[in-house]
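Chain A, query sequence.
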Amino acid sequence: MKLMNSGNLLSNRTRISALLLALMLLLLTGCSSTGPAETGALTESGSAEETTLPTVTEPASENEASEPYSTKSSLPEGTDRMFYAHVNGKVLKILAAENSSADAFLDLLKSGDVPVEMHDYGSFEKVGPLGTTLPRNDEQITTEPGDVILYQGDQITIYYDVNNWSFTRLGKVQDLSQAELKDILGSGNVTVTFSLSEGRMEPESSKVLVVIFSRTGHTKPLAEYIAEDLNADLYEIEAKVPYTDDDIKYYTNCRADREQNDPSARPEIAGELPDVTGYDTVFIGYPIWHGQAPKIIYTFLEGVDLSGKTIIPFCTSHSSPLGTSAENLHPLAPDAAWMEGRRFAIGTTAGEISEWVKSLDILSGQPADTGVFDFEKQTVLLNSGYEMPIIGLGTWTLSDDEAENSVYHALKSGMRLIDTARYYGNEVGVGRGLQKAIDEGIVTREDVFITSKIYGGNYERAGGIIDDALKDLNVDYIDLMLIHQPGYDDEGVYKAMEDAVRAGKLRSIGISNYYTKEQVDEVLSFATIVPAVIQNENHLYYQNTELQEYASQYGIVIESWYPFGGRGHTSEHFGNEVIKELAEKYGKSSAQIILRWQLQAGFIAIPGSSNPDHIAENYDIFDFELSKEDMQRIRELDQHERYENW
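Chain A, predicted structure.
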């Protein structure tokens, strides 16, 4: 028998022992439910060496098992590495990765929001050009739903399914399941705006463009009606060689006959084509020539990039239908989302156009949930892009000291909306109450929505009043400023508020004590920023749903001062037999029934009080819901009766 060297024997035993130890570690690792960062063998230095072996985690519940991927996290709120993606009216909360690429992206967002036109790729991601180049930290990874990835340094991707490639991590979407994430992102092209602000995006003046070609002038009025309804921009196509009457004498071998029969005809357009970059939706209107859109429409579509935008065609004719005229335009903008168009008779009225536009649910590019009350968040999304609490404190008649105390207790009770005005003379007290709540850690400035109002005057005076309000309230910005009531030079005052929005002094603007469509239309005639809120007298006996319905087409929300009818009328409202019956049914006070009705009816409510108990009671209205039948009973109390004549 051959003798083995004792050194070799010892070495072999060591190897066997090491192998057995490795197998034991392998078994332990495979059975463990720990994450990858917790697994691995110890090196000689005692540090954990990452293993490449996969780990398996058992689902915690049936629901979790049916949803294989989730972005839900137990991370603490308020982390300073959080950024947000605004998409389809929703907000994705994203925790930034720890690398130089994510740092550079956060720095980029500090200079402003970054909109990205994103499209589906490979049935697992949304991807789009970032518009700049960031440093890369590529690594071979398998993505999961919710991963936000930098690709090739200049493209950003949100994954809603798995993929394996060399990427740079930018962040991870928080608190959403895979199904929820896919539902929010939707299918097809979409604009995603990355921001450091959650639900508070800077407003844009217009996201809708109406394009029109109208040789005889029959189609142009319809385009103007659409633009007026949507506060949209209007671009009229004009031929470089204008069409004469003889050019459109059909079946005479006229110019229109020849162009429409020539597939390659592309009449030249006079002047420069519009920059369509900032628009989400484009209406295209034209007359019907030989059953089709005029070839100059083809010239326009081939001359601009409408990728990712929604296109809505419409036409005018004596009798010809829209037919295939719109379908034949689709190949000219294949990456756009084409909606079904419509044919209108010559002479169609503004009212008919308005009804059609309303049915499209297009409000100047606003998210679909603009003006919809979110009872879980207790807010409503304004047409300015900012969220406003739907219940708050009114401070009319309160002194500075009373306002300070009431504001403090309102914020302590959970309210986040405070209403004041220059005329009230208590903005200093409101500011003190806010600061007291901030100092005690109850709220931050960003948690609180402050409304103030200014009287008419003129442009210069209004600018000074806004500065005075900021000083007295001791804030850097005011969330909502309203014209207190119609007065002298409302246009000048409104333009001063618009300039204050652009300067960052105000975030949203609106009007107060404007009760008719005509009054609202007058403001819209000179406004470049659509009012976000109309604050009016609104209560059981004066509900003014007609104005609410009219204003909703512009994304304008109605806010109720005197929700209980005001001094001298409160007891009558509280003692109404229907209200008393419902209070007993739901185990609530009359005040709470009225306020809950206000919110469910779509009215922001700001009841006033200096009593801390009443303030807390007014806020305690989110643990019940009035039935449809009970809402209708209150609706039938309307007497169209105002108490004030402001």
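The mean pLDDT is 83. The first strand starts at residue 41 and ends at 42.
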